[in-house]
Amino acid sequence: MENPWWHSAVVYQIYPRSFADADGDGMGDLRGIIDHLDHIAGLGVDVVWLSPVYPSPQDDNGYDVSDYQDIEPVFGTLADFDELLAGVHERGMKLVMDLVVNHSSDEHRWFVESRGGKDSAKRDWYWWRPAREGMTPGTPGAEPNNWGSVFGGSAWEYDPVSGEYFLHIFSRKQPDLNWENPEVRDAVHTMMNWWLDRGVDGFRMDVIDHISKDTSLPDGVPRPGSAYGDGGPYWLNGPRNHEFLREMNERVFAGRHAMLTVAEMPGVTVQEAVLYTDPARREVDMVFGFDHVWVDRGADPWLLYPLKLTTLKGILGRWQAGLAEVGWNSLYWNNHDQPRVVSRFGDDGPRYRERSAKMLGAVLHLHRGTPYIYQGEELGMTNAPFATIADFRDIEALGQYEQAVTHEGRAPEDVLTVLRARGRDNARTPMQWDATPNAGFSTGTPWLPVNPNYPELNAAAAVKDPDSVYHFYRALIELRHSEPAVVHGDFTMLLPHDERLYAFTRALDGTTLLVIGNFTAETVRAEIDDAAAWAGAELLLTNAAAPRDLVLEPWQVVIYRRV
Ligand code: TEU
């Protein structure tokens, strides 16, 4: 079979709320994106993925959709959207929409109708259940089961009108749709076809491994120190998940060749990812796995675990090997839910910020798979200096803080330490365009303050400086487009037990690439087996002086080619 176009593609993610505000209300908008399309096209990316722009009460910044077939007025209109789509296409790029259909907003007319009463025609479009047997509805502990929600508190919300509860894995304003009901699936397919017919080129599918649940909704294993049990095993990768995606593929994707589907799947294993992305099974093109971004999590959610490079290499190496023959990887360090990678795995101090950001970019982009760049990553944007809980806006940070501090007695400073390092708002501070007030993001008051480092760290400065992180990312993308070994080469991990260096080769038809990234602020020699063979090799890209004898400077990365 011919290789699909997205094997050699690079995707750029926009979080519209924080990208560019053209009308001065403090919130990004579609016009702002249109105005900055050349910044994205200038990088050389192939695809733009837009986080949700649909009408939404914005309880979870748009991941709570109240109308799937329109545009949030704060962001613009459908006419603006069509103009954006045309602008993306004119520049030779494709546009992928976010698809948030595990849940809707509680303000969606489907849910409003469903909530109308037990005999509503749409009652069964959501998960309604009576109180636990023998318990008085609405009293503590009477929820249908013990599941905790991802954003804190119970996963069940009581509705006094009907005396029943509805399920929400995320916030109470994000009720889970009941995919067991074929009418729900039909409605979703119709909506997806409507967008594709309008010209969009695919979907990034939000928590799409949550859509099939164990319909008996059993109690989860209690979590130490928490009032709630872990429902994950009953809502992740449920019994009908493959079936639902296969059906969606048949009814929506079949016959549309130039599109892209990427399934966000927290908790997916590499074995399951092979099944989801096996072209013969006709489900999705690739998945977002989470193993590598959970590398610094441990048993205690409110403890920071330092990065162990060998563990990270073990995880990514396992995914490379697991999807080598069948299926396809997505590659990402960052998105709107993750802290900034230069702060997390690199060094965001003035000395090594740019160098370590480039090293991280090169290591990721030289893996086999489709790389995703999150807005600002191409500038080496950093985590934000959040002082107190009042500085956070994210419903996840606020909800988890409330549960941990108020209900579970955790020390506020411990919880804050983790939120500062890992909180999602780190990724959501406004895009830093230039050195003018508010980083050129908005003439109004930004909904979340701009990172104070914008006078030095901004797109205008980066585009002007040929040595910037921006131009390094541009070179990485160009390399993917020009060197087939980057796209198709076999991946071999080297030095798996080394805690300082990330080293691997990519080999295709007699061409071998060698990539070595130094994850430390020390000078390190790479003791690879066939070091001598690389002595005369061509150095394709590095972020410091050309090394001698594979002795790498702090945070240096090298990409060599041998034929
Ligand atoms: O994220 C799903 C998800 O896995 C997150 O809950 C993630 O694990 C957590 O935020 C890490 O801190 C998707 C969206 O990307 C996210 O923005 C939404 O809040 C969530 O689904 C609900 O739609």
From TrEMBL:
**Its GO biological process terms?**
oligosaccharide catabolic process
Task: Please give the family membership noted in the entry.
Answer: Belongs to the glycosyl hydrolase 13 family.
What NCBIfam families does the record tag this protein with? PRK10933.1 (NF008183)
- Which keywords describe this protein according to UniProt? Glycosidase, Hydrolase
UniProt-listed Gene3D superfamilies: Glycosidases, Golgi alpha-mannosidase II, Oligo-1,6-glucosidase, Domain 2
Instruction: Note whether Hydrolase occurs among the keywords.
Output: yes
List, alphabetically, the CDD domains matched: AmyAc_SI_OligoGlu_DGase
Enzyme category, top tier: hydrolase
Taking every annotated instance into account, which residue ranges of this chain make up the domain Glycosyl hydrolase family 13 catalytic? 13-428
Q: Which GO terms describe its molecular function?
A: alpha-amylase activity; oligo-1,6-glucosidase activity
Q: Which Pfam families match?
A: Alpha-amylase
Spell out the InterPro entries in the cross-references: GH, GH13_cat_dom, Glyco_hydro_b, O16G_dom_2
Q: Which Enzyme Commission numbers does its entry carry?
A: 3.2.1.10
According to UniProt, the name of this protein is Oligo-1,6-glucosidase
